[in-house]
Amino acid sequence: MADQFLYVSVFLSIACLLAIYAWKNSRSPIFNFPLIGMLPAILFHVEQIHDKCTEVFAKCPRRTFRIHGPWFANMDMLATVDPENVHYIMTGNFQNFPKGPIFKEIFDVLGDGIFNADYVSWKEQRKLTRFLITHQRFYRFMAKTSRRKIETGLVPVLEMICRENRVVDLQDLFQRFSFDTTCILVTGYDPGCLSVDFPDVPFSRAMDDAEETIFMRHVVPECVWKLMRWVGIGGERKLSEAWKVLDSVINGYIAMKREEMRKRGGDAIEVEGDDGSDLLTCYMNSGDEDRVPGLRCDDDMFLRDTILNLMIAGRDTTSSALTWFMWLVSTNLEVEEKIRDELKLSISSDENWRIFGIDEVKNLVYLHGAICEALRLYPPVPFQHKEPLQADILPSGHFVDPKMKVLFSLYAMGRMESIWGKDCLKFKPERWITKGGSIKHEPSYKFLAFNAGPRTCLGKEVALTQMKAVAATLIHNYRVRVAEGHRVMPNCSIILYMKNGLKVRVANRWSCE
């Protein structure tokens, strides 16, 4: 009898403790379990993580909340979409919020490239990269490359699809287009990923595998993925194999470029005529006038890290943005017609078929607004995190210490009524146009698609002009419609792609009329 009473007492005590714990957690946006924290809820919602985060942020005061991980996993972080916090972290107290060693370890495949770099290394790399990307010889090369790849790569594939009246994955086409153009712009070599036979390209597949594993490193405890890496199983094994492919291909490009330079006469600076030159050539040929102290631009490891960082930046962001943009336009026909009307005004009235160059579309206001609106709702990089060097208090009043990561969701920021108004979920290009008909610029801490503060994306203008040229050519010449029954939803990766691709039917507008 006494034993039974003891068991009942213990059971009731545990039940009371759990009830008290549950009551405390009723005020928390995500249930916080004893010992294991919020990890079960995160794993349960991982397939809808972006929309779940949006839902949680909308309920939180100051759009900020604390995420508790398992007590042993070092996963505690502060999540925020408060523009004041973002501005403070990205600009106001930028020096106290570097990428940090944890970020570099998670993204270890990127080496010491500009995405992982902090402090002096980051400043030196950014200074040289800005000089090369904004140089006229690179702009000429980009203009030529973009038009040629649209004309000889994208259009022939689209024409074949129209003739065969088949369903195609537009996301796959954009990935192939972006991969080819980025590879040409960065290395000078065309991998030929975009062609009518849809070849398998190991380099591109290796980048996909690496990104998938990096995302999972954000979700599972650090000790778990490190154990998987040590044992060589699961996603970590896939990353290891992808790493070897990336190194092999990139080192091959570097070796070919060195051989080209040797044949041209060693280290002599040679600007490749009026067509400009690729970034690898520019890096290897950087002379005294543009060389940055502390950078060894002739070092193979530096070149490897630089190429991979630029490849991921160029391929993934552009193709992701174009995919979501075309889905939004094809499902909002009034927007599609307004873009076509703007394009008609930019060309002669008797002209139908047209491939647009980057200089022809860079000043189109409505097209610019539509692309920015797509980036607001579906930012290619949906989240990012920082680590404070020293303890700090954010404008929202939340305390952060060096053991805590600070995470902000760009996806959720674009869907906050407190930031964008009651119509925040509506695709509305007019949001980006002033009453006078010019482009409206939003502060970067509110519209974070191209980052903010000192780390603002160096390739912003390159990406925008290339997207405009592709979008204009596609919308002006073709009618794109989502295939019946196709379900669109975001995937789980560090890049916001569509989980099931974008299956569409394409028709040539001029052959149909």
From TrEMBL:
Heme binds at C457. GO terms for cellular component: membrane. The chain crosses the membrane at residues 6-23. InterPro entries: Cyt_P450, Cyt_P450_CS, Cyt_P450_E_grp-I, Cyt_P450_sf. This is Alkane hydroxylase MAH1-like. Its cofactor is heme. It is a single-pass membrane protein. It comes from Castilleja foliolosa. One of its GO terms (biological process) is lipid metabolic process. Its main location: membrane. Keywords: Heme, Iron, Membrane, Metal-binding, Monooxygenase, Oxidoreductase, Transmembrane, Transmembrane helix. It is found in: Membrane. The lineage of its organism: Eukaryota, Viridiplantae, Streptophyta, Embryophyta, Tracheophyta. Belongs to the cytochrome P450 family. One of its GO terms (molecular function) is monooxygenase activity.
